[in-house]
Write a structure and sequence with these properties.
single chain, alpha/beta, Rossmann fold, seven-stranded mixed beta sheet, two-stranded antiparallel sheet, 9 strands, globular
């Protein structure tokens, strides 16, 4: 059975294998430390614990998944977080990505459209001592205006198009990572950077496959 160390070693190999797309041949030392400090087994359902260290997405109920660890790692790395940063996450899921972000940033605000998942993630993060993560249930398309602006924004579900509200809530000099594309169709992990003047530029990083970003009923 795979171990936590095996998983981190696989993430390193995936970084090397995808460097021609991402421009990132290896995870940063800070990211590696965060990945080592967060145990994915704490964030999967009991039925999936034996697969926690497999480098693949896993079901967490309600039609949602916990992302492939390599994808968690590369999306986090692309944000280039600093210790004083405030991060907005759209799509809390079980809380694994939020926990990795919390090891690298000052504060993480996370929105989950499924109330049951928001409650589960919040309980798990509290139990594990993540005092710098705040989770709420809501529609991620609107962002979290009361907490804006953000140094970085990460979206862990595929948006049909880049949500304008999120771009508005990104600080000048900030970075946003979002998968863009239709459900089951061609999706592209996209990095958006906002210049000091408030202009945005974007580039496609990788082809990806995510569950769709859901609007709250």
């Amino acid at each position: 059975m795979a171990t936590h160390k095996d998983l981190i070693d696989q993430i390193r190999r995936d970084f090397a294998d995808t460097a021609s797309w991402t421009g990132r041949p290896a995870p940063s030392p800070q990211l590696l430390a965060a990945l080592a400090a967060v145990d994915r087994a704490d964030f999967v359902p009991p039925s999936e614990v034996e697969y926690a260290y497999v480098n693949a997405p896993l079901p967490i109920g309600h039609g949602q998944t916990i992302s492939q660890p390599y994808i968690v790692a590369i999306m986090t790395d692309l944000l280039e977080l600093a210790p004083e940063d405030a991060v907005l996450e759209i799509g809390t899921g079980s809380g694994y990505q939020a926990a990795v972000l919390a090891k690298l940033a000052r504060q993480v605000y996370s929105i989950e459209v499924v109330p049951e998942l928001a409650a589960w993630a919040s309980r798990t993060l509290r139990r594990l001592g993540y005092a710098n993560v705040e989770v709420k249930s809501g529609d991620g398309h609107a962002g979290w205006p009361e907490k804006a602006p953000f140094d970085a924004i990460i979206v862990t579900a595929a948006a049909a198009q880049i949500p304008g509200a999120l771009v508005q809530q990104l600080k000048p000099g900030g970075r946003m990572v979002v998968p863009v594309g239709p459900p089951g169709g061609e999706q592209k992990l996209t990095l958006i950077e906002k210049t000091a003047a408030g202009e945005t530029r974007s580039r496609v990083v990788l082809p990806v496959a995510f569950v769709p970003m859901v609007k709250k009923a």
